[in-house]
Structure formats: C-alpha cells, structure tokens
Amino acid sequence: MLKIGIITGSTRPNRKSLKIAEELKKWADKREDALYEVVDIADYNLPMYNEPIAALYSQDYQTPEAIPWAEKINSLDGFIFVVPEYNHGLPSALKNAIDYLCHEYGNKVAGSVTYGSQGGIRAGEVLRLVLGGLHVAVISTSLALSILTDFDSEDNFIPEEIHQTIFNKLLDRLLAWGEPLKVLRDNEPTHK
C-alpha cells in the first residue's frame, strides 16, 4: 500500500490547515486503499533554512531538525499539501520545509487542498511550480476551500458535501500516479 502524507501548510497558532488535514484523513481512511497520515510541519520545528548547499545534494544534513523531516518525507510515497494562501503565495513555513530537502521528494506525486478568501488557488499554483522543480508529479485535480463558507463563526471546519466528492477524485488521481512512480523509485539505483 502507498503511504500518503497529508501535510499541513502553516505553523500559525490559529491556523486552519491542521483542522482540515485531520478531517481529510478521516475521509481518506474510509477508502482503505492507502495508508494516510497527517504530517504537521509545526512538529518538526525547522529553523529558517541554513544548510550548506552541499548538504542538500549529499543528504548529509547539518541541521538536527532536518534529519527527522527528511526521514518522514523519504518514508512517504505521495503528498497532499493543505495550503493557505498568504499574500497570493505559499506560507513561508511550508516553503522553508520544502526547501530543506531535494532527493526525498523526487519521483513522487502530490495534490493540493488550498484555502483562503478566494479558495487559495494562487497558493496551489505556486506550490505546483516549486514541486515541479523537485521532480514531483503534481496532479491537476485539487480542492479549493473558502474561509468564508467552509468554516463557521467559531472557526470549525464545516465543508460542503461536494468537497468530499472532489477530494475522492483527487485521491483517485494521486494513487493512480503514485503506484507507477513507486515502481520507478524501487528500480532506481541509489546515488547517496
């Protein structure tokens, strides 16, 4: 079975990404077609990127926090990024977490669930560009949530039923790409 990480895109104390990720995991677990887990970037306490450039390519990380992060990303076959839109782009915490690694992302698949006042779509487009540079296959099916209609006045996540249908289509695509990419990775020579 493929292992899919549902990765939070923010570390702010009042963030919505963790609530959304936990709900998405419940939806995904009903399918029983892969192993899904919430990966909260806040748990890794990554400092601002400060690795020597050689560490990025050699995977000989100097920052202690980078090692468990690399191990987690390496253990996954695919990703669902839960991304808020900050200033028409990605949150700096997510970009920082992505920048710490290179090889661990390669030849894997990703999808996005974005949110913001206009669905966070621009954040998803920025994420697509960043991940493409790391040899991640980013599927086109995505889920865009509105902070105006998908949350109540007490900030509880109350998604429309259609969102679960769209999310299932996202997972169908993610797994369809994930299987052949896993075969490709399993047959690659190691270069470390």
From TrEMBL:
Q: Which SUPFAM superfamilies match?
A: Flavoproteins (SSF52218)
Q: Which Pfam family, an example, fits this chain?
A: FMN_red
Give the top-rank taxon of the lineage listed in the UniProt record for this protein. Answer: Bacteria
Q: Name one GO molecular function term.
A: FMN binding
The Gene Ontology CC terms held by the record are: cytosol
Gene3D superfamilies per record: 3.40.50.360
Where is each NADPH-dependent FMN reductase-like domain found?
A: 3-146
Q: Which protein is depicted? A: NAD(P)H-dependent FMN reductase
Look up and give the organism this protein is from: Carnobacterium iners
